[in-house]
Amino acid sequence: MAEFDFSNQRALLIEDMAEARILQKKMLTDFGFKQIELAMKAESAIELLRSNTYDVVLSDYNLGSGKDGQQLLEEVRHSNLIPNTSTYLMVTAETSIEMVMGAIEYQPDGYISKPFSQALLQRRLLKLIESKQKLYPVNEALDNKDFEQAIKEAADVVESHPFLESKCARIKGDCYLELEQYDNAIDLFQSALKERKMPWALFGLAKAHFFKGNYEEAESRFRQLMLDNRFFVNAYDWLAKCLVKQDKKKEAQTTLIDAVEKSPKAILRQIELGELSSDLGDFETAEMSFRRAVFLAKHSIYNSSSIYFQHLKSFIGIAKESELSGRQVENFKITLKKIQKLYGENPKIKSGAYEIEIELFLTQDKVNQAKSAHQMYKQDIELGLAVPETKRFKNKLEPLLGEQSEQDEQG
Amino acid sequence: MSKMNKVDISVILASSIHESKNAVGNLMYQLQTLKSEFEGPSEQSDKINNIEEGLKQLNDEWVEYLYLFKLASDGYDLQTDSLQVSEFLDDQVFALSQSATAKDLSLDFECDESLMASFDERLLTSVMSTAIYNALRFAKKRIVLNAAIEDGYLVFKIEDDGAGFSHTEDEETNFLENNTGLGLYFAELSAQAHANNGKQGFIKKSESSTLKGACLSIYIPQ
Known about the structure:
The structure holds two protein chains of two kinds.
Chain A: E1 10-14, H1 18-31, E2 35-39, H2 42-51, E3 56-60, H3 69-78, E4 87-92, H4 97-102, E5 110-113, H5 118-134, H6 136-143, H7 147-160, H8 165-178, H9 182-195, H10 199-212, H11 215-228, H12 233-245, H13 249-262, H14 267-279, H15 283-297, H16 305-321, H17 326-343, H18 347-363, H19 367-382, H20 391-401, H21 403-410
Helix pairs in contact in A: 2-3, 6-7, 7-8, 8-9, 8-10, 9-10, 10-11, 11-12, 12-13, 13-14, 14-15, 14-16, 15-16, 16-17, 16-18, 17-18, 18-19, 18-20
Chain B: H1 3-37, H2 42-72, E1 80-84, H3 85-102, E2 106-111, E3 116-120, H4 121-138, E4 142-150, E5 153-160, H5 165-168, H6 179-193, E6 195-196, E7 199-200, E8 202-207, E9 214-221
Parallel strand pairs in B: 2-4
Antiparallel strand pairs in B: 1-3, 4-5, 5-9, 6-7, 8-9
């Protein structure tokens, strides 16, 4: 193994246990790293990754009560917070490895099992960096979103380093998908599968069929992946997409409920299940999913006001069919408060919150409460804290308040 | 008591093993910190090394038992990947070279550098370490690992120059009654978990043709 100079490299160490963090930092210092930043949980790691670029990220899978290491990885990969040229090493325990390996869509560059010695970490890191250096032109092209170039570079890398063939084939296949060259993708994944049933190739093949609109072909392959390994949760997500396309929404919902049970912390999956359930008129399930999504949204890059609104709307759906329980009313208020706290200074969102609150009161036949909320809403509009009522509100909800007739009586 | 209680106790044991394993890991971290700051006489640092060795072996055994539990209760999903076999063997030698040196044994591997094969790296890491720890107990001077493709199977061999299987334990009846037996059972389940195109993995015990001791072969279908 070649010597490597770590002194100009910048490392991010993410570990929640103090003992391990101190020791790992010492190890990295001994390797020669001059710049090492520390994060104790995923949320602070995201903040650091937003403003800095690291050459090496060493992250534990277990990060306490917040997001786990895999969710962190998915978020930072999804939002390009970490370049492909960086090296991402995940520290796992035997119990977590299935979840990590199961997430075939977003994987770290390497894994190391806890506990590890300094010598082993150094060896792993050097090997990974060595392979990253060979793949540098490929990853650089990926970072530039130049997928044509990445395919060319990957072919060159295989020429000089045949043992990187599997890795390069996978990258090429994913590039074809990005370029929407689905026939090329299908050819590539199929020939990879001829040699051996590799999960990534089967997954890529299924996705290519999905994008081509061959939903049945795609479906059977996603199902195969689920049979091969219960932990391929991404396959559940894609199967649900196939089923929705084939107008089997109820089945899609069941699939997502399964996936959510296996991996409840994935926010995008919770949102997907929430939307699908609303669509099916199953507002109880929708409410539960959006409630979890709201909880997970805190400190997430997917934190947007629409999640909160969707959660609130699900209560209206429930209230139309039956009376809300005390707990449900409480949950509605909690999310409403969260919106006001997070987005209260945005007049448009403030209006949205008022309208949904009024709509829920009206659905529950609480006209007086609806009226007083509307009074506050109007005051805020005058003060410029909220924007004027939407057309939908004026046409559909305002008439139900019976305010117009009151004014008539007074006049 | 009911059947339900029996099932529960094995799950509880598995999770207790996991807790213990974490505790061992924590001790290893503390010991590493201590070791890096230690400046005493070499006999004492030898003792620290021995404790470290012992803890590592304990950790590796707990890992084996956790996998064994999953394999035996039908709850393990294989994670195969295409890997450079020589690098895998190099990793195994690296991980246990300190243990071998402590016993004055040589531990090497032989493998064609261009050999690529598919298998579950983590599971086989545990199988190899189990087999090597076992060989460390019986070898006189040498342990050699090798890997090659034979007839559509990737074959890992762990050979030593000890007394061989026939002298240490042969009785099928006490197969599971000692450490070696349990280790072999684990290797067998792990090999069987690998299946490809209708072929299933298996293990074979024999005499080493080169070292004259035990030879354990693990067949992984490709």
